[in-house]
Automatic annotation (TrEMBL):
E.C. code: 2.4.2.52
Protein name, per record: Probable 2-(5''-triphosphoribosyl)-3'-dephosphocoenzyme-A synthase
GO biological process terms held by the UniProt record: prosthetic group biosynthetic process
Keyword Transport: no
UniProt cross-references to Pfam families, sorted A to Z: CitG
Length: 288
């Protein structure tokens, strides 16, 4: 057999595409990190409501994850089982924790963006575009049943998120995934896409998307730190911000900055909403 005919002489096209899908996830996490002001969250400006991490902790975490997201996309392209994705996710979490000295920077993001990369890899390997609708279908068809079973199994788990979800009857990360991320696809990504279509600058559009996430998500980080009252407060102020014209309104940046100060004073940190922003930035890059 000639060299040209040998199977696997060069990586298949979808392997390069998996690399691009995964790289877009790392870039999207950087998009999220670099947005400021961002109420209660870590940015290059400050550490928000956190005393154990700053932007350099997040950068170390990002660097440690650079191979994980292409791996998720390749697994998706190869038709991998949910168990294989979970194994990759746990290995990525372990690398993140080694890189950050045990601090949880991106556990939720590994889960959400990992699943999205896997779904996009699956689509690309079938010659399909990772549009929002196609991604939701691929998630449901590929791993929907396993995600539902996982959400039921983990209802008794002892993670911060599971405890908060149980105590307050919230839709945590597992349930969002089991329903193919309704908040991301129905609220956060549309807010980002619409803001860009209206001509807002990328940073303004990301601020709008972050507030859309804060308004709609049952963010278990908030409930863990500040109870149901803290979560509902954040959802209310986010809805008010959007109703007052959002990121395009005069004085929006000052209002976001004032909320940042208030959240820091109350130790509020919408980490789940930050993950939704990153996921929307990834979607904007790969699946318009
Ligand atoms: C499915 C898991 C993500 C586990 O989820 P679970 O709900 O059991 O609990 P947590 O371990 O608490 O993690 C959930 C993280 O998901 C983000 N999040 C919160 N609410 C939502 C929501 N409604 N929808 C989607 N995502 C949500 C959030 O992640 C971000 O915040 C973290 C940093 O916050 P911080 O304030 O520092 O929090 P902590 O250090 O935890 O506590 P304190 O400082 O307050 O004391 C950071 O992770 C952000 O990304 C939640 O934290 C998952 O662990 C799992 O099953 N993994 C398996 C492997 C895997 O990834 N598989 C992937 C493919 S199958
Ligand atoms: N920028 C950020 N600050 C704090 N927690 C987060 N979780 C995800 N992104 C975050």
């Amino acid at each position: 057999m000639s060299a040209l005919r040998q199977p696997c002489a060069s990586p298949p096209l979808w392997s390069e595409q998996a690399q691009a899908l995964g790289r877009a996830a790392t870039v999207a996490l950087h998009d999220e990190l670099s947005l400021a002001p961002k109420p209660g969250l870590v940015s290059f400006a400050d550490s928000g409501s956190h005393t154990d991490m700053d932007a350099s902790t997040f950068l170390r975490s990002l660097f440690s994850l650079r191979r994980a997201f292409p791996a998720f996309a390749r697994l998706g392209a190869a038709g991998a089982s949910f168990a294989a994705l979970e194994q990759e996710g746990l290995a990525a979490e372990a690398r993140m924790l080694r890189a950050t000295g045990g601090i949880n920077t991106h556990r939720g993001a590994i889960f959400t963006l990992g699943l999205l990369c896997a779904a996009a890899g699956r689509l690309r390997s079938n010659g399909q575009e990772p549009t929002p609708a196609a991604l939701r279908d691929a998630l449901r068809q590929g791993w929907g049943e396993a995600l539902v079973a996982r959400a039921q199994r983990s209802a008794g788990a002892m993670s911060n998120g599971a405890i908060a979800a149980r105590r307050h009857g919230l839709r945590g990360a597992g349930l969002e995934a089991a329903e193919a991320f309704p908040v991301l696809f129905e609220a956060v990504h549309p807010a980002l896409a619409d803001a860009l279509a209206r001509g807002l600058r990328p940073e303004q559009a990301r601020l709008e998307a972050l507030f859309a996430a804060m308004a709609a998500l049952d963010d278990t980080n908030l409930a863990h730190r500040a109870g149901l009252e803290g979560l509902r407060h954040v959802q209310r102020v986010a809805r008010d911000f959007l109703a007052a014209g959002g990121a395009a309104a005069p004085g929006a940046l000052e209002r976001a900055q004032a909320l940042h100060r208030e959240f820091v004073a109350r130790r509020l940190s919408p980490g789940g909403a930050a993950d939704m922003l990153a996921a929307a930035c990834w979607l904007q890059r790969v699946g318009r």
